[in-house]
Amino acid sequence: MTYSEQIKARYAAALMGNYGLPPVVIREGEGRYVTDVDGNTYLDMIGGIAVSSLGHDHPALVEAVSVQAARLAHTSNLFLHEKEVELAEKLLELWGNPGKVFLCNSGTEANEAALKLAILHGNATGKTRIVATENGFHGRSLGALSITGKDAIREPFGPFGRDVVFVPYGDLDALKAAVDDTVAAVFLEPTQGETGVVPAPAGYLKAARELTAANGALLILDEIQSGFGRTGAWFAHTAEGIVPDAVTLAKGLGGGVPIGAVLATEEAAALFTKGVHGSTFGGNPIACAASLAVIDTIERDHLLENVLDLGRHLDARLLGDPRVAEIRGQALWRGIALTEPVAAEVVEQLIGLGVLANAPRADTVRIAPPLTITESELDDFCDKLIAALDITSPAPGARP
Ligand code: PLP
Questions:
Q1: How many CA atoms lie within 13 A of 363 on its CB side?
Q2: Which of 187, 251, 253 to mutate to test the pocket of ligand 1 (most atoms within 8 A of CB)?
Q3: Own/partner pairs, 169-173, CB within 8 angstroms, 24+ separation
Q4: Does residue 135 have its Cβ closer than 6 Å to ligand 1?
Q5: Which CATH topology does 72-300 take?
Q6: Which of 73, 139, 166, 208 is at 20 to 30 A from 62, Cα to Cα?
Q7: Residue ranges of the chain assigned to CATH 3.40.640.10
Q8: Is 309 exposed, middle or buried (0-12, 13-18, 19+ CB in 10 A)?
Q9: 351 and 23 in contact (C-beta within 8 Å)?
Q10: What kind of architecture, by CATH, is found in domain 3-57+302-392?
């Protein structure tokens, strides 16, 4: 039995089965690579599901976290500290809109807080309905799950006692039919990540903004996966030139340290009066220091430009392969759609070839690597993806 197999057996015996048995026992990481407990090295093309924005063991993150841990690790919300103020100010500056921030610990928690804003807005205006999208994903807590449009994971836990209407994602006519003056809020992802990186059609978010404004409903954008550099911008929605009432963030925001945030316009933020919401760990000093280091490094090293350039390189490398139907998404947050439903096998082959990726659906390999990745590392991924496809779907003469 290898050491990995031993740890896996202990995992299966000690941890609940909700994640199944993950394939790789990671011991450490450096840059874009992780090493397992048996010494095998993998190129990390999934970045802990769009989280490890600076890669692993990044000196800026290590220093920020170490210095902050040595100085002050926790205050609770009974007291405040400078880092949470600094982070909130910085997030509003990046967003470019007047507003206020609520800090929490995960994406799910950010959506819980946003859902509370929606409910409070509904209470104040007599609106009861929430509109969300089919196949959308907002988290696993009961609130976030109630607006999650993936039936298989939502339905076992319902009913939720909330009037939620799910519309087909990206279908403007369906959205128009669903949004009237009974709607308190519309929740949308600019691109659906867990469904295989499926972007909304151009103009959809803008139209959603106009519809919600006309009906007095909040537009709440879940940028937990799409935000913080994934699309080559701090926020995916700015490409449509709109200002939503609230945006939820997490994942890449902390570069691997758990943190979530809700950014809201002044008007929406005013719904959170004293006592309506809270979190013991929200705005934790270590998490805020980590997030500030992530932002500083992305700005200093021009990482948003890096992923945009590399995204084009990825297209050039893979789009000619006949087994690749399309590559959805932007920059280096991509759903590589295959012509055959072999994504799970391809991901398994990639692991054998020393690459971590994932298959959110049968025909799609998803990548969301560190924003720090280099062109030669990306080339290495492309070579290995083609090699994995050669094993799962051999196509003579398929190489681009
Ligand atoms: N919203 C979106 C769009 C997500 O992709 C996720 C996680 O994948 C979540 C919410 C939930 O975030 P977390 O797992 O941090 O609670």
A1: 12
A2: 251
A3: 169/133, 169/134, 169/135, 169/136, 169/195, 169/198, 169/200, 170/198, 170/200, 170/201, 170/204, 172/201, 172/203, 172/204, 172/207
A4: no
A5: Aspartate Aminotransferase; domain 2 (3.40.640)
A6: 139
A7: 72-300
A8: middle
A9: yes
A10: Alpha-Beta Complex (3.90)
Cα(387) to centroid(ligand 1), Å: 31
DSSP letters along 50-74, please?
Answer: HT-TT-BS-HHHHHHHHHHHHH---
Please, where in the chain does CATH 3.90.1150.10 lie? 3-57+302-392
pTM, full prediction: 0.97
Residues in Cβ contact with 66 at an 8 Å cutoff, skipping those fewer than 6 apart: none
Contact 250, 261 (CB under 8 A): yes
Tokens of 114: 């946003």
pLDDT tens readout for residues 280-305: 999 999 999 999 999 999 999 999 99
154 token code pair: 């939502």
In this structure, the residue with its CA closest to atom 14 of ligand 1 is 107
Q: For 302-332, write each residue's pLDDT tens digit.
A: 999 999 999 999 999 999 999 999 999 999 9
Maximum alpha-carbon separation in the chain: 66
Q: Ligand 1, from 46, 138, 142, 197: best to mutate by most atoms within 8 Å of Cβ?
A: 138
> Is any atom of ligand 1 closer than 6 Å to the C-beta of 195?
no
Ligand 1 site, residue 225, Cβ cutoff 6 A: yes
